[in-house]
Design a protein that fits this description.
three-stranded antiparallel β-sheet; binds adenosine monophosphate; alpha/beta; 48% helix; 8 helices; five-stranded parallel β-sheet
């Protein structure tokens, strides 16, 4: 089962991907996480990836797909996977399509105002990666491990708008492509995570 979750930043792809992963025993592969791991490396490529992410831009397609294919080649992906954040444009669709067929392209729709509201309130733990929403100054520590929280540079308003712009321009053509292939499923992301997951389960069953 090869599943790709498509949606604007903040549409809850990460949350849904984790839920699908747990229920269907499939690895959840976030290309954002793959990029952030690469960005930690003290190499020329690592520094380039970090700068690109921090500016709210996309990593070049060939590089992105080669990082992704390396991950999908691992044993745990043999029975399938859930992709969170990839493909993001037609070039990635084509590059990925050379090796992998997507069985379900699930498009999680969300309005622009809902995206900005959600993302500007997202904070992440430096130590364990736990995500918290709208923590007040009093709750400035991670609820799981007590470490300090930070806001991703690309979750700041200017970068958010840049990311929405990229999504509208590049990602939407893919939706038509997957529709023609008969594998597209659209769902409304403006609901609780449980409600959204309920809609996804109906598609996958
Ligand atoms: P995300 O966590 O999915 O919002 O991704 C964070 C950042 O990682 C993006 O803003 C891009 O810089 C990079 N990234 C993630 N997925 C892709 C992709 N499929 N293609 C290019 N860049 C990506």
């Amino acid at each position: 089962m090869h599943i790709a979750l498509i949606g604007p930043p903040g549409s809850g792809k990460g949350t849904q991907s984790a839920k699908i992963s747990k229920l269907y025993a499939l690895p959840s592969i976030s290309t954002g996480e793959l990029c952030r791991l690469e960005a930690k490396k003290k190499t020329k490529q690592g520094r380039f990836v970090k700068k690109t992410i921090d500016n709210g831009k996309l990593i070049p397609d060939e590089l992105m797909i080669s990082l992704l294919k390396r991950r999908l080649g691992k044993k745990d992906c043999a029975n399938g996977f859930v992709l969170d954040g990839c493909p993001r444009n037609m070039k990635q669709v084509k590059l990925l399509g050379k090796n992998f067929h997507i069985d379900y392209a699930i498009y999680v729709k969300l309005s622009e105002s809902a995206i900005v509201k959600r993302l500007s309130g997202r904070w992440q733990c430096r130590k364990c990666g736990n995500i918290m929403w709208f923590p007040t100054k009093k709750v400035a520590k991670c609820s799981k491990c007590g470490s300090s929280l930070y806001q991703r540079d690309d979750d700041k308003p200017t970068a958010i708008r840049e990311r929405i712009g990229i999504f509208n321009k590049l990602t939407k053509p893919m939706i038509n492509y997957y529709k023609k292939k008969g594998v597209l499923h659209q769902i409304d992301g403006n609901a609780t995570p449980e409600e959204v997951f309920g809609r996804i389960k109906k598609i996958l069953h």
